[in-house]
From TrEMBL:
All copies of domain D-galactarate/Altronate dehydratase C-terminal, residue ranges: 279-517, 804-892
Region feature (Disordered): 522-588
PANTHER family on file: ALTRONATE DEHYDRATASE, ALTRONATE/GALACTARATE DEHYDRATASE
Composition bias, Low complexity: 570-588
InterPro entries, alphabetized: GD_AH_C, GD_AH_second, UxaA_altronate/galactarate_dh
Residue intervals of the D-galactarate/Altronate dehydratase second domain: 135-266, 611-721
Native source organism of the sequence: Kribbella koreensis
Keywords: Lyase
Protein name: Altronate dehydratase
Keyword Plastid: no
Gene3D superfamilies: 2.30.130.110
Length: 929
């Protein structure tokens, strides 16, 4: 028999349900104040069970806050589970669960502010003698806790450039800020947030020098940042800095940019730490991978240490707006004045409206990992997250995302629940240290701002001690909170003074800015109640809004029926264009040149890839490191031609529905891609789309999950342990090396793209190139938003008609019938476009470029050619081929280059130089949460 105090935690004395501090199997006997109770069901660690009888319809309380209501009379020891939490646990294969849920979520009624009863309290008393730390004094604001040279991309178009430039400096002192935003054509809805964030990054006190990099002709430029700063009264950048615009070849620009940075290195390195007041310590308060104990141990501890920072004159910044919905009363228990209270509630309401435009509510915030670890719904997550605001601390200010600090004290910043996006806003507001509380053991860190990790339980701390800084779980086993506060405050001062945090020692860093959202008003077919609680299914929306799969019928079948089945005939080729290129038309006398492909597992492909696929944004950078290590150490031997990782921003901290379906389809597209020979999924451990999620998705797709490797950063025990697991999996196979075979481009799926102006000859040449590939039995994919499909000259040369053409496949959808296909594209971002191509099975992309070049994609080779003399003169070093002459001559160059790359005789320039990326679209309805 176990005593209740050995296994149960009551967040507040008046609660009627307790949190289990360990897994309790069915039949476990617990002593409740002298009364033995046998548990009728399994209760997982962090899940709740009844501590005193609850009648049908009565509220279930944690922190004295109703989070659910009983669906039947509940006795002491009954397992508390909602439909969502029961489904999440059942999906993980847990046995001993009830057949039906015992509770339903408490409705998220709008919070009603009683202005007459508002407590306009005082801030905590300042210490008599404020302390100091060793920092880097700055002219433009507080002192820095670090001193980095930062290479900042203004948009996604320069992200590959700053990443490669920082890599070439190679010492961790020079760090890149690469992100996914601002790369589309037109004005993004998040433009003001993006400019404020970039301006704030440049002014952050941890920046000792900054190079701001843009690409010629883009909207989000260095000049746009300068104009934004002047318009909004930002101070000048007073550290060494420069603005650099890419105007030449990638290598030439790297050399030129490097010359700007090199003189700063000795200047920044020579700066020494000095004693500065603790008032210069500005803390960003974050949580990620939260569990049921976050609100009991780690969040209260971080709040208590933040209280001490404020008492010394510093600042603490709470964020993640949607993770305070349901906890408004707690946040406003002590507030500076009525306008501050009103602004906080207006911010919450604005966030609800924004996600409502996309058909979502705050209940979409808790990730699968949150629910599995005991946070059944947004109320439980919010009331626990709000504990980062200590009971004795007053809310002083409310600011917008990335807004500059209005004053000292405790600040709330509007931001999504997405951890990385929220951290970016805090850093832009001036935070020079991050407190990150975590239940599962999140390992994410920011490039130039140190992060202290507070883990909620000692068990999890012991598992991940190399990646964690503070064991807040000691509070659960008897260590007084005051003692933990004193220890952690001392550690905070040490890290601010230069002691590396666990995340810095691990070398992990990542940046994600609040991602663009498509909608600016409610969509037809979406119904949201005034309080944002419910939404109708999106079946009334047009298919392009839902990004639903399409039948996949090609515009024109491939000439070689092959695997299409008996009786399938190719559609007739259109009449050749008037340019005289009939000799290259489908069915003509000059088929595509022979290529040397690889026979791999009964298929013929241009390469055999060993893929490490992160299941969410938080495992992306670790996947990159593992793939690079696996390449060097040849974990898969001769079985693969290269190792690839595909970091992205999705899988957690973003809405579900149509966006999640597109994400899942994209991920499966790469797992099942014909070029993928070995694939391992790497989960962080607390995401919405974890390993078990993708196991079920693979089964739905008719694939065998046992073909794939599975690893978890958190569950496997941290970076060293997961590295060993991944290495062992790739090394556990004895596979023959791929064998070269003679073939043609007709074996392949090629995407055609054009960026910039097109001549008639080039438009026809691309059409002829596609006709040759399809005529030889291959497939060609176009983007529905691309320049080619919108060019009447191309449509006529390719299909014999200028009639507009709609999509045949959804974004990232794999097709079953070979031929010409059009992929539906919700936006114009280049990297999202090529990522969709790859998910659909595209093996190479041929892009004609004018007035600039493109970044390559990590998985799918991007071949760039141009017939534009000015582009050739300016960017010739980045081009894989130069075409001239009539359409047939240009098509011949395109086909020869495709064949050379497919035969592994030529590596695309962008790939060789390191100008690569990968990004998954959120479609029209995805939004950050």
């Amino acid at each position: 028999m176990l005593r209740f105090d050995e296994i149960g935690v009551l967040p507040e004395p008046g609660d009627n349900v307790a949190i289990s501090s360990r897994r309790l199997e069915t039949g476990t006997v617990i002593d409740f104040a002298g009364t033995p109770v046998t548990l009728p069901h399994t209760v997982l660690e962090g899940h709740r069970f009844v501590a005193r009888p609850v009648a049908t319809g009565e509220p279930l309380l944690s922190w004295n806050t109703p989070f659910a209501r009983a669906l039947r009379d509940l006795a002491i020891g009954d397992y508390v589970c909602t439909p969502t939490s029961l489904a999440a646990v059942s999906a993980r294969g847990v046995e001993g669960l009830p057949a039906e849920p015992s509770a339903e979520n408490e409705p998220l009624d709008p919070y009603e502010l009683d202005e007459s009863a508002l407590n306009l309290g005082r801030q905590v008393t300042s210490v008599e003698q404020p302390g100091t730390f060793l920092g880097y004094p700055r002219e433009q604001g507080p002192a820095g806790t670090r001193n980095h040279v930062v290479l900042m991309a203004t948009s996604s178009r320069s992200s590959g450039f700053v990443t490669e430039l920082a890599r070439r400096f190679g010492d961790g002192f020079v760090v890149p800020v690469a992100h996914t935003e601002g790369g589309e054509e037109g004005t993004p809805n998040n433009l003001s947030f993006l400019l404020a964030t970039l301006a704030g990054f440049a002014l952050n006190p941890n920046v000792g020098a900054v190079l701001i990099v843009d690409t010629e002709g883009e909207l989000v430029s260095g000049q746009a940042i300068k104009d934004f700063m002047a318009e909004h009264g930002y101070p000048e950048i007073r550290v060494p800095h420069a603005y650099f615009t890419r105007r030449a070849g990638f290598e030439a620009d790297l050399t030129a940019a490097g010359r700007l940075v090199e003189p700063w290195l000795p200047i920044v390195a020579a700066q020494s730490r000095q004693e500065v007041p603790l008032a210069d310590l500005w803390i960003g308060l974050q949580c990620g991978g939260s569990d049921a104990f976050s609100g009991v141990s780690a969040n209260p501890l971080s709040g208590a240490v933040a209280r001490e920072v404020i008492r010394h004159g510093g600042i603490a910044v709470l964020a993640e707006t949607d993770e305070l919905i349901g906890a408004e009363g707690y946040v406003l228990k002590n507030v500076r004045d009525l306008p501050t209270a009103r602004r906080f509630l207006e911010t919450v309401q604005s966030f609800k409206e924004r996600v409502g435009w996309h058909g979502h509510t705050a209940e979409g915030n808790p990730s699968g990992g949150n629910v599995y670890r005991g946070l059944y719904n947004i109320v439980l997550k919010s009331v626990g997250a709000a504990r980062k605001l200590d009971r004795d601390v007053r809310l002083d200010h409310v600011i917008d995302y990335a807004e500059r600090m209005p004053g000292h004290g405790f600040v709330f910043m509007d931001s999504p629940g997405n951890d990385l996006e929220s951290v970016a806003g805090q850093v832009a507001s001036g935070c020079n240290l991050i407190f990150f509380t975590t239940g599962n053991g999140s390992i994410t860190n920011f490039p130039f701002v140190p992060t202290l990790k507070f883990v909620t339980t000692t068990t999890r701390y012991d598992l991940l001690h190399a990646e964690m800084d503070v064991d807040a779980g000691r509070y659960l086993t008897g260590t007084p909170m005051d003692e933990l506060t004193d220890e952690t405050f001392a550690l905070t001062v040490q890290v601010a003074s230069g002691q590396p945090s666990a995340g810095e020692r691990a070398g992990h860093s990542q940046v994600s800015i609040w991602r663009n959202w498509r909608q600016t008003a409610p969509r037809p077919g979406i119904s949201i109640t005034p309080d944002g609680r419910t939404t109708r299914p999106l079946t009334d929306l047009p298919p392009e809004d839902r990004d639903a799969p399409l039948p996949g019928t090609p515009l024109m079948l491939a000439a070689s029926a092959g695997s299409l089945g008996d009786g399938v005939e190719a559609a007739p080729a259109p009449e050749a264009p008037a340019s005289g290129a009939a000799q290259l038309a489908s069915g003509g006398s000059a088929p595509p040149g022979a290529v040397r492909l690889l026979r791999v597992d009964e298929r013929v492909v241009p390469e055999a890839v060993g893929l490490i696929l992160p299941t969410s944004l938080c495992s992306g950078q670790i996947a990159l490191r593992l793939a690079a290590q696996g390449e060097v150490e040849r974990w898969a031997g001769d079985a693969v031609t290269r190792m690839v990782a595909l970091p992205h921003t999705e899988g957690c901290g973003s809405s579900g529905g149509a966006s999640e379906e597109t994400f899942a389809r994209t991920m499966l597209g790469y797992l099942l891609h014909p070029n993928t020979r070995m694939a391992l999924l790497l989960e962080h451990g607390c995401e919405k789309t974890h390993n078990d999620y993708f196991r079920s998705r693979l089964v739905e797709a008719g694939a065998d999950p046992s073909r794939f490797g599975w690893a978890s950063i958190q569950a496997d025990g941290g970076l060293d342990a997961v590295t060993g697991r991944v290495r062992d999996w790739f090394g556990s196979f004895t596979l023959d090396a791929p064998q070269e075979v003679q073939s043609t481009l007709g074996e392949l799926t090629i995407a055609l793209e054009a960026r910039g102006p097109l001549t008639t000859e080039t438009a026809e040449a691309l059409a002829l190139t596609g006709r040759e590939i399809v005529g030889a039995g291959g497939s060609v994919v176009l983007s529905s938003r691309g320049a080619l499909l919108n060019d009447e000259r191309f449509r006529y040369a390719a299909f014999g008609s200028i009639t507009p053409i709609g999509p045949t496949i959804a974004h990232g959808q794999r097709f079953t019938a070979k031929g010409w296909h059009v992929m539906r594209m919700p936006g114009t971002d280049w990297m999202e476009t090529v990522t969709g191509f790859g998910a659909g099975g595209v093996q190479q992309v041929l892009a004609h470029v004018a007035s600039g070049t493109l970044s390559a994609q990590r998985f799918v080779p991007v071949i760039e050619f141009s017939s534009d003399p000015e582009t050739v003169a300016q960017y010739g070093d980045d081009l894989d081929a130069v075409a001239s002459g009539n359409a047939s001559e240009q098509a011949a160059v395109a086909l020869e280059t495709l064949a050379a790359v497919a035969s592994r005789q030529q590596v695309p320039k962008a790939v060789a130089s390191g100008n690569v990326g990968f990004q998954i679209t959120r479609g029209l309805l995805g939004t950050s949460m």
